[in-house]
Amino acid sequence: MTIRTVVWNEFAHERENPVVRDIYPDGIHAVIAAALGREADIDVSTATLDEPEHGLSQARLDATDVLLWWGHKSHGDVSDAVVERVADRVHQGMGLIVLHSGHFAKVFKRLMGTPCSLRWREAGERERLWAVNRAHPIVQGVGPSIELPNAEMYGEPFLVPEPLETVFISWFEGGEVFRSGLTYQRGAGRIFYFRPGHETYPIYHNPEIQTVLRNAVRWAYNPVAWPDVAEAPNVPVAEAPETIEAKGASLHQAGEAGFR
Amino acid sequence: MTIRTVVWNEFAHERENPVVRDIYPDGIHAVIAAALGREADIDVSTATLDEPEHGLSQARLDATDVLLWWGHKSHGDVSDAVVERVADRVHQGMGLIVLHSGHFAKVFKRLMGTPCSLRWREAGERERLWAVNRAHPIVQGVGPSIELPNAEMYGEPFLVPEPLETVFISWFEGGEVFRSGLTYQRGAGRIFYFRPGHETYPIYHNPEIQTVLRNAVRWAYNPVAWPDVAEAPNVPVAEAPETIEAKGASLHQAGEAGFR
Amino acid sequence: MTIRTVVWNEFAHERENPVVRDIYPDGIHAVIAAALGREADIDVSTATLDEPEHGLSQARLDATDVLLWWGHKSHGDVSDAVVERVADRVHQGMGLIVLHSGHFAKVFKRLMGTPCSLRWREAGERERLWAVNRAHPIVQGVGPSIELPNAEMYGEPFLVPEPLETVFISWFEGGEVFRSGLTYQRGAGRIFYFRPGHETYPIYHNPEIQTVLRNAVRWAYNPVAWPDVAEAPNVPVAEAPETIEAKGASLHQAGEAGFR
Amino acid sequence: MTIRTVVWNEFAHERENPVVRDIYPDGIHAVIAAALGREADIDVSTATLDEPEHGLSQARLDATDVLLWWGHKSHGDVSDAVVERVADRVHQGMGLIVLHSGHFAKVFKRLMGTPCSLRWREAGERERLWAVNRAHPIVQGVGPSIELPNAEMYGEPFLVPEPLETVFISWFEGGEVFRSGLTYQRGAGRIFYFRPGHETYPIYHNPEIQTVLRNAVRWAYNPVAWPDVAEAPNVPVAEAPETIEAKGASLHQAGEAGFR
Description:
Four copies of one chain form a homotetramer. Chain A has helices at about 15, 20-25, 30-35, 60, 80-90, 105-110, 205-220; strands at about 5-10, 40-50, 65-70, 95-100, 120-130, 145-155, 165-170, 175-185, 190-195.
């Protein structure tokens, strides 16, 4: 069985900035998709902001097991309807991998419920990601740490909820630290935030980063379908697991739907 | 120092339904406020849906330490602007206590990032809340369990994130269970979800329920002010904790704000 | 690749009590092993208390991926050396599934760090396990709840640490609740506590319970080997990731081992 | 009400090593106790390894609200009986603050259930502790980070369970990171692990470190007494919250204690 994977990218910097274009001539999504698509169990395609519905129609999302998200300067251009649609699919079981500046993507903030703010500096400094949870499936195949010679700095405090698991913590040359790999569950969906990926450095060409992304796709894949996860069904008295009789006053008539 | 506490209520059922009016002639908020206001360290006031800005102006929220939220049939009438304002204040450090049917309140879904769905039945059945974390400040002064002779049933699965702490779990006469007391942190703010409180039963008149609410107000109170919690400040190279020199290409000009 | 699985049982009640013997003539371990062994990916064997080293020699444990543990009246007869050996292997990556009265097994208390105490009643009452986290791999293939017509009651508070995930919560006929399925990570090893299994009822013959056990074995299996997980290696100055020079006073001579 | 606080120190290096003696002529415990004792709400005393029962008799522990623990070279000399006694008191509600090399103290390993291993280097390098959870009571009164000019390095992976909260993360000059402030609950007791404190540097003289210690004492203080936390009481049929009749076979006779 293959994991149907979509790599989403706003695809803006690569078309506007020559430095970025040199590194990612076909876009960041193309490089990530190529890295994932080498694996027999991953069936990968891409989607970008300027496609109709940003390439994320309901039918497309319904046929997606894991979505990767790269966005930066165009967060505000992502339609709220698509954001809700993606969040709904995560709740139903789709995995989501949020990359780098995606910390401020609408859909990440929507799923975290927090500001997702941080400190930052663009100085091409050295970053070293330490695998804090070395037994985690996401870090298999990489060493104790991953070193990136040039990276944008993200510094704590990172305003996200306490994670399910802290997988990576980054050290920066300039003196800061950052929780760079964090896992969450929201509804039936698994979420992995992965920090590296600034567009002016060739980070997604790094073999260890690619290994982490492949691991993350497999970890985020949950072969569970829960289409009505957001429903709040009434359990009538006659269908209660234990025999009971209704007592006291009621607000609802029998068969009435709940308020929402 | 007193904890500036606001009890918010949509205040609809009490004006429309004679059963509810008999139990809460001045509204659910009035009974809760009276229970909290007996304490010297809690300074309590109330707010309702039909006040201007639902009684939750920016100035009012800025002067609020802990907000309690009761809503049910009018979730959809709460303005999105007020929801964002409340969420922002939670991020900045305001405590939030979400009551009963508030599981579907816009602001709770906003802060959880999940559907917050559940199963339900209105049969006046018996509920028993077990204090799972008996050492938690929220359960002090109540026994091993709280018994409610008549309650609406809420059943698992409850679609919220794994909590920081599970404080109460409910047993229902009809055969279901529910995580009835859960804690979270979002930004600097502490959140407590507390299940009991159906409007057709006198639950907020129960002395043990009132004790839990008072404990929860004190627990949720965090004397921290973080007004710019959502900001993502740049840390210029010259202000890096360690001396570094900028290397490689940059996307941003010096002094430019980040994208969001 | 198969998951090398060992089912451990103290194997006492089945030999001493006719009621238990009727249900488990060859021991609880035999029934569990048969249920697991039907699967092509699980390679199962058993071990019992009165074997040399309780059947858990270092060589045997080193060749074990997942260990299931059933104990009750003989907790005190398990040698401390074997307990440490099992705990060490969990830290190195072996999965551990602790069953029912194993909550008081030395190795479970050793790995939790808490009393693992609870309330109990042996009245053959009805139990219903609700799948709180319906998207979890451990609950796939079973319905929203599992009903056991006769069970020993375990009641909260259950003195374990906040779990990584709450998977099942039980409802009991007599009015109590219990967190019946909990996950943990200790070192590189995954741990699942699963409540059902009282020896006077045919609980491990139940097909849904058997499905949960098979799921749990697969979930607990972590193909990671970390034999030196407990070591605290020195990182000499010359091997620091960044070039540094030693400053200030030192307690240790170069090459000296740390204290423990 | 004052918080009855005991600072425990093995008190070995200070008597054997002139560098350490110069920094802590009366012992590390004396400096910490002086820092805590300036506060009106903290009533502080000290205890050391070579006192009878290491200064931690049952009576002393029963009258202790919060215990701080500094040990390094003498972990192996701490009696197992005292370790169990301290762990039992934590379960009953006593707070515990474990300092620096206490990561390998018997009582910390006992309460964590993990190896508590890490990487280390004694090079007097610079450490910067970032307050990851800036809203936490333990970090109030200190800046975004605490800088220590000379520190022993501790590096990840740190083999402890996922914490309740990650409070501090350290950056080291030599290139490593470490989760330097972590909270846990074990039984009714709150535990804070705090990394800084190497004996060859004057770290406990640092005013910000002292502020953290004072905050931690107040956070760890839980005015709850649960002396029988480890008991597993039987709930007889006649005292079940719901009326039930015993069904099926039983292993235990009425009134019998459970196995352990």
